[in-house]
Amino acid sequence: MAFVRTSGPGAVDDLFLVPIEGGVPRRLTFDNREIYGPPSWTEDGKDLIFSSARAGLPSLWRLPVAGGDPRAVAEAGTKRLLSGDFNQGPSLGLHAQHSQQKYLAADAEG
Amino acid sequence: MWRQRRSLLSQAPGKVFCRPAGNGAFPFTIGPRFGSGRYCGPVVLSTGKGVCVFCVGRGDPPPDRRHRETELAQFFTGWQSGNIHADQRLQEGEWSLHGAGRRGQTSTADGRSGGLLFGLVSGWPSGGFLPQFRKWIRHLYGLPLGGTPRKLYARSQRKLYAYSTNRAQLLAWSPDGKLVAFSEANAEGRPAITLLSLADHSTRHLTSPPVEHFDSQPAFSPDARGWLL
Asked: How many domains is chain B partitioned into structurally?
């Protein structure tokens, strides 16, 4: 299971991984950037997709759980996105801006 | 399955808006006005055949959500709407804004296929430990397809945590339908990833966040299975 660990009061986040039977969580990101919403798994379970403003504007990022650095999902564009569930069909993101609520899709193959 | 879901969602004021999979281009924008007095919650993916969005509410929304309730424009073609059975359980000031959907290929703990989970949030304390945690979930409901909602979990104390407005999806449902994950305060008062067994409603904390840390936003991996104690 993946989850977000936040440290306060500055509220910075990193992604962690823990077996559902329990154990010591493994840290996946190390840069203390804010993460918007829960991560989503790709269908093959190899990558996590998450939303974060790592390179300026918030966008979707793809992270291999086996290790490595996150890379931007190019198709998602540079908008504030909450990634949806990539396991169940079209991948989605939530874009909340001012008075509008938009649901955007991004290609998990990015 | 799709028709079945539509038929079970039948009472105002709560609404679920669903869109069949494969209908329409991406990206897309949904709207419009889902209705005055409603807050549209996070994306809820249901049975793998579509996508649903919660829109539930009664009374005035919390101030930081008010902007979302009335100005959603342009209803997306192909979306269907239905109402959530559970509106009678909503109390004044409670908001359903955290949900999780699950595919219908396997049975849930109560023998039904697929369904939705949602939590009712109430209360808006100020300050305190980690000001981001300004609300909490008091009740967790399951809404099985073809059935009526039932309360799965409740806390009278303020222990089930939600997060700030842009962290909408709090609940996660395991791929086999047996577990629900969320964030709940542990014995030290720090929000930890917690697993709820839908079979016997037992819970256990999966993580132990360090001092001044908290864990939230759980996401099951595709191969996560069962109740492993």
From this structure: 1
* Interchain CB distance below 8 Å, A90 and B43: no
Q: Is the ipTM of this complex over 0.95?
A: no
Model-level pTM greater than 0.80?
Answer: no
Looking up tokens 């998450």 gives A50
d(CA A90, CA B208): 33
pLDDT tens sequence across B96-152 = 334 444 433 333 333 333 444 555 444 333 333 333 333 444 555 554 443 444 556
Residue B149 lies in a domain: yes
* Domain extent at residue B41: 2-205
* B217/A37 CB distance under 8 A: yes
Tell me the two tokens of residue A57: 């504007």
Residue B128 in domain? yes
Angle at alpha carbon of residue B5, lines to B2 and B8, rounded to 5°: 150
Domain extent listing, chain A? 34-105
- A77 to chain B, closest Cα gap in Å: 11
Q: What residues have CB less than 8 Å from B13, skipping those under 6 apart?
A: B35, B37, B38, B56, B57, B58, B83, B87, B90
Are residues B56 and B84 in contact, defined by beta-carbon separation less than 8 angstroms? yes
User: How many Å lie between the alpha carbon of A60 and the closest alpha carbon of chain B?
Assistant: 14
Contact B68 A11 (CB under 8 A): no
CA pair distance B41, B38, nearest whole angstrom: 9
Read off the pLDDT of residues B84-94 as tens digits, 9 standing for 90 and up. Answer: 333 333 333 33
